[in-house]
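We give the chain.
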Amino acid sequence: MIYSFVLLLAFPGVVCYHLYRSLSRGRRPAFAERFGFIPAAETAKVERQGTIWVHGVSVGETMAARPLLIALKKRYPEKKLVISNVTETGREVARKLSEPDLCIYFPFDYRFAVARSLRKIKPELVVVVETEIWPNFMDELRRQGIPSVLVNGRISDRSLGRYLKLSWFFRPVLEKFTVLCMQSAEDSRRIISIGAPAERVVVANNLKYDLMVAPLTPVERDALRERYLIPSDVFVVVAGSTHQGEDESVIAACRVLLDSGNKVIPVLVPRHPERSAEVAELLRKSGFRGTLRSTLEERQTLLAPGEALLVDRVGELMNFYSLADLVFVGGSLVPTGGHNLLEPASLGVPVLFGPHMSNFREITALVLEAEAGIQVADGGELLTLFTTLLADDDRRSRLGHNGLELMARLGGSTDRHMQVIERVFRRGAACRAPGEVT
C-alpha cells in the first residue's frame, strides 16, 4: 500500500520523465501501452490462444532471451509469444525478431495499468528476463494465479548492497515468483540472501552463452561487406555499444592507424542511436568523413579509408561484428559495467574491452582465461593493441579461434531453463520443479 501510494505521488514525475525521454530521443511517447491500453488490433494477434509473456527491459535482455524464445516457439508452437520492453531501443530490436507474435511496452507498475495489460494479454505464463522486479506486477500475477519464472537472473556487485538494505521490501516480491533461474551459484546465494525462497531457486547458467550464431565463410563475409559498402581489402574496426567518453579513444586510435598508412575503416555503433549526431561531430573534428548507416541505400560508391561508418540503427550489431577484423566492446572504458563479450567471440572475431566489466564479471573471466580477448586499461593501451593486432594476422586468428572453442564448451542454459518451464506448465503455480532440476 505504501509503495502504491508513493507511486501515486510520483505520477506527475513519471509522466514528465517518460515524455522527456521519448521526445529527447526523437521517439513517440508510449503512454497508452504503458498504462495498459494496448490497441485491439494488436491484441487480436494473440486472442483465443495460449500466451506466454516474456519481458526483457532493453536490448541486452532481449538478445539474451533469443535462444529461449526460439526454444519456446519450437516446444509450444500452438502458443503465442508476447514480448515486452521498457526502452525504445529494446522495442525496436524485439520487433525485428521472428519469434514474437506481439511486441508491447511493459506497463508502468500502477495496479490499474498492470491489471489492464494482463486482461488484454491473458498470459498462461510470464517469463521475466534477468532481474526486473516490479511489486504490483508480481502481486497481480499471484492474485490471478498466473505462474512466473525469472530467467537468466543475476545480482550485480553494484546492486547487491542496495537489495540487501531493502530486503524487507523485496522479500515478499521475490516470494511471488514460481521459480527463479539464476546464472550462477553466486547469483543464487545472493538472491536467497535478499529473500527469495531457497527451494525455488535454480542455477540454470547464462542464456548469453547459448548464442545461436556461427562465423561467416569468406564468401558470406565479402557479401556482407558489399551490402554495407565496405571494401574487402580494408581493415575494419568495429566499436560496438559505445557510450559517451569512449568514441573519442576509438576514433583517435583509428586516426593514428590511418595516418600511418593503413587502410582502415572504423565502424562506430553507439549503444544509443540518438548519440549519432554527437559521434558524427567527433569524427568530423578528427578528420574522418562520417557516413550514417541510414543513408547507405542512397549511396552508389564504396566507403574508402578516411571514411567512417556511423550506425544509427538498432538490431544490426551482430552483422557488423561478423564482418569485422577487430572488435572493441563498449561500456567498458567508462564505468558503465560493460556489454556482452560473447557476441563477437561467438563469431570468431578477436575482441578488446576496457577495465569496467562489473556487469559481465563471469563472462570476462571466461574470455580472459580462454585467451579469446584482451582487456585494456585505457585509450592509450587500446591504441597500442589496435596497432599490434593490425600487423599480426596470426595473433588475431588465435584470439578468434579461442573464442569459438570457448563457445563450444559453454552452453546448455536454454535446455535447463526449458526443463523448469515445462514443469511449471505441467504443475501450474504449485510447481516444485526448482528442487528437482540439476
